[in-house]
Amino acid sequence: MLGSLDCMHWDWAACPTAWKGQHHRGDHNSPTTILQAVASQDLWIWHAYFGMAGANNDIAVLMSSNLFDDVIDEVEPDTSLYANDVEYKYGYYLTDGIYPEWATLVKTLSCPDDEKRLYFKKKQESARKDIERAFGVLKKDGLSSPNRRGYLKKGELIAQQGLMIQDQKNIIKDHEQQIGNFVEENKKQFEKIRLLVENDKQKLPSL
Question: What is the pLDDT of residue 167?
Answer without folding.
Answer: 56
